[in-house]
Amino acid sequence: MRQRLVSFLYILTFMVIAGFLAASAVVAAPAPAPGDHLAISGRVTNPMGKGLKEVEVEVLVNGRHVKPTGKDAEITTGKPGGFVADFILPPGTMPAAKVEIKAAKPSWKPIPATKVQVVEAGADAQGNKLFQAAQNLTLNRTTTPGFWIAALVLLLVYVVISFELMHRTLVAFLGAAIILFVTYTLGTFDKSFYIISFDDAMGAIDLNVIFLLMGMMLFVGVMKKTGMFQFLAFKAYAMAKGNVFVLSFVLQIVTAVISAFLDNVTTMLLVLPVTIEIAVTLKINPLTLLIPETFASNVGGTATLIGDPPNILIGSYAGLTFGQFVQNLSLVCTVCLIASSFFFLWWHKKDYNKAEVKDIPRTIAFLKEQYKITNKKLMNQGLLLLGFTILLFAVHGFLHMPVAIAALIGSLVLVAISGEDIVELLEKEVEWPTLVFFIGLFMVIAGAEETGLIQVIANGVKDLSGGNLTTAIILVLWVSAIASAFIDNIPFTATMLPVILYLNQTIPGAESGVLWWSLSLGACLGGNGTMIGASANVVTVGLAEKAGYHISFMHYMKECWWPMMITVTIAMVYLLIAY
């Protein structure tokens, strides 16, 4: 009892002393410094009205630089592009003083000293005069050495990948390392060489994409152990009855339909193991089925809001609903799907004719015995969680939930109840080279965005349209398609959004929203042109390579470029007729 009393007295004494010190601090708090108090606020944007962060703002009073009150650092804009600063000037300085403001940011033309209109806003309790000023500024891009370095790195990344001089993962990550190295070496001494900060490069990595892929890879890794995919391969073969042309067509249609309600990456993660099993049974190269399926997944994903990442960006920015996407894009996507499916049937007719379809009943009986469900309980649990995950994908917009969360909760709960070794799954089932490739590519493209390379393309579309709706539709569609074939369609779409918004407000007839559909069709269908144009392509290539089936950049482009051009042409005709 005595010990508790002593402890209580110690605590009470401490509280009394702390309270006394706090009261003393309040009493002793210095009054605001005497003088004229000037508050300046504003926002720095690009020509499209988007706020620019990390812009250095300088304030001049009577031609002399002044620093903000209580701060040693200069004024820098935040993420929305805004800035606020307070200054204490000698009494009597205002209002006669000439107040000017300057702004500068690497890769942007600096704004020279611009006069600011100052108004008197009364006085504080000590009688100091208060003055306020507000000034919004617009920065325009400029071509710097950093711009050319970022453009060269991006070009070299694609060239090296195209000719397979290095592994694509090494190329993308090396390109990211180069632009960061230049930023923190040459860019430290000369701002014109500054490309992108480390924080911005990390922020450019779309973790929603990375974790979505990882989650679904884990999901597929567990489900493979149930024998379900082998069983589905047997069922697909039995339904086709040896007709490889019918089988390929059905697989493309089913893949497209699934991609309309799941994202196309998840769809390919699910159908790829089944497809390989079918191809092995038929003794044909799995790529003759996988590449048409990947193409179909991108076409099907174009039809809905949640089917392809560019559509999610467009829908969120423009406030478009799931129903509007279906109403405006489902018909043209159906026509494109049929056209591309028949193209691939013609393209692979020699490969399909080589399939071994001898003694079909005996083969079906053999597959039925060979490909059985090995763990029915785990399969049912997996299907239940898959259904739950699909439900979350469908309502993720309503819940404001990133799709990665849906993928992670479904896959990790499945791993937990399955008793599988998570370390083994991470080592063997997660395609880390693909994920690292995405990380590097996101950073390289962010460097191109930060220095203005992608914005140059967007501004070119705006200038070339010349106020004509037909010209704008064609330009937006084809520029988006060609660019998305070589530049990942996600960052390109994000860059084009303010341009389309501006065109909608300035071109007669564009208020119908047709340019949003032009951007969607161009970015999604154009991503089919090369193996790096869309996320589903990259995932398919990575997993096929892991299974032992290599796909070169040129082989993929040779097979998919012309059907991409056909589908984009169909989309152009549709847009010009329908709108």
Write a structural description:
By secondary structure, the protein is α+β, with helices and mostly antiparallel strands. Among the domains are: 36-46 and 74-138, no CATH class; 145-204, no CATH class. It contains 24 helices and 10 strands. It has helices at residues 2-28, 145-162, 168-184, 186-189, 198-204, 207-223, 228-240, 244-261, 264-282, 287-301, 309-318, 322-347, 349-353, 360-370, 376-399, 403-418, 422-428, 432-451, 453-465, 469-486, 489-506, 514-526, 535-546, 553-578, and strands spanning 36-45, 56-61, 64-66, 75-76, 82-89, 99-104, 111-115, 118-123, 129-134, 137-138. Strands 1, 5, 8, 9 and 10 form a 5-stranded mixed β-sheet that branches. Strands 2, 3, 4, 6 and 7 form a 5-stranded antiparallel β-sheet that branches. Helix 19 (453-465) packs parallel to helix 21 (489-506). The longest helix has 27 residues, at 2-28. The model is unreliable at 8-12 and 20-29 (pLDDT under 50).
SSE topology:
Elements: H1 2-28, E1 36-45, E2 56-61, E3 64-66, E4 75-76, E5 82-89, E6 99-104, E7 111-115, E8 118-123, E9 129-134, E10 137-138, H2 145-162, H3 168-184, H4 186-189, H5 198-204, H6 207-223, H7 228-240, H8 244-261, H9 264-282, H10 287-301, H11 309-318, H12 322-347, H13 349-353, H14 360-370, H15 376-399, H16 403-418, H17 422-428, H18 432-451, H19 453-465, H20 469-486, H21 489-506, H22 514-526, H23 535-546, H24 553-578
Parallel strand pairs: 1-9, 1-10
Antiparallel strand pairs: 1-5, 2-3, 2-4, 2-6, 6-7, 8-9
Helix pairs in contact: 2-3, 2-18, 3-18, 5-18, 6-9, 6-16, 7-9, 8-9, 8-10, 8-12, 9-10, 9-23, 10-12, 10-23, 11-21, 11-22, 12-24, 15-16, 19-20, 19-21, 20-21, 20-22, 20-24, 21-22, 22-24
